[in-house]
Amino acid sequence: SNATVDERFWSNATVDDWAKEMAGMRIIVEKYANLTDNSVVGVRAPYLRVGGNNQFTMMEEQAFLYDSTITSPLSNPPLWPYTMYFRMPHRCHGNLQSCPTRSHAVWEMVLNE
């Protein structure tokens, strides 16, 4: 295994890689912030590096409700949050991004540039 993880790792991380990182972080945050109400329900990928279908599959499996990683080009009006049930209402924006290509039962809190 690679001792260092750089931003490129997250573009091709497996569902299990994503689960270890995000569900693991949720456990740590809940423990040390003394959260007992299951209120950690969203994720933002490291380096804003979207993890494609694997990231969003993990989110469904781990009961995350929303992601806030995907960016969209500036538009007027700006985009509102949308579900990933259907195609994104904008192109996959940014260098080397791996946007999901399948339907996922999660929300995207899109970052408007």
Structure description:
The protein is an alpha/beta fold and 113 residues long. It has one domain. The chain has 3 helices and 6 strands. It has helices at residues 7-11, 15-32, 52-61, and strands spanning 42-43, 66-67, 71-72, 82-83, 107-108, 111-112. The strands form 2 sheets. The chain has a 4-stranded mixed β-sheet, with no helix packed on it. β1 (42-43), α3 and β2 (66-67) form a beta-alpha-beta unit. α2 (15-32) crosses α3.
Short structural summary:
One of its GO terms (biological process) is carbohydrate metabolic process. With 113 residues, the protein is of the alpha/beta class.
List the SSEs and their pairings.
Blueprint: H1 7-11, H2 15-32, E1 42-43, H3 52-61, E2 66-67, E3 71-72, E4 82-83, E5 107-108, E6 111-112
Parallel strand pairs: 1-2, 2-5, 3-6
Antiparallel strand pairs: 4-5
Tell me the number of helical segments per DSSP (H or I, 4 or more residues long).
3
Give the helix/strand class.
alpha/beta
User: What about the largest sheet?
Assistant: 4 strands, mixed
Find the count of extended strands (DSSP E, 2+ residues): 6
Helix-residue proportion: 25-40%
Helix and strand pattern = HHEHEEEEE
Mean pLDDT across every amino acid position: 93
Cα separation of the termini: 35 Å
The shape is globular
Question: Uncertain runs with pLDDT below 50, 5 residues or more?
Answer: none
Strand content: 5-15%
Strands of the largest sheet, in order across it? 1-2-5-4
Radius of gyration, in Å, reads 14 Å
Count of spatially separate domains? 1
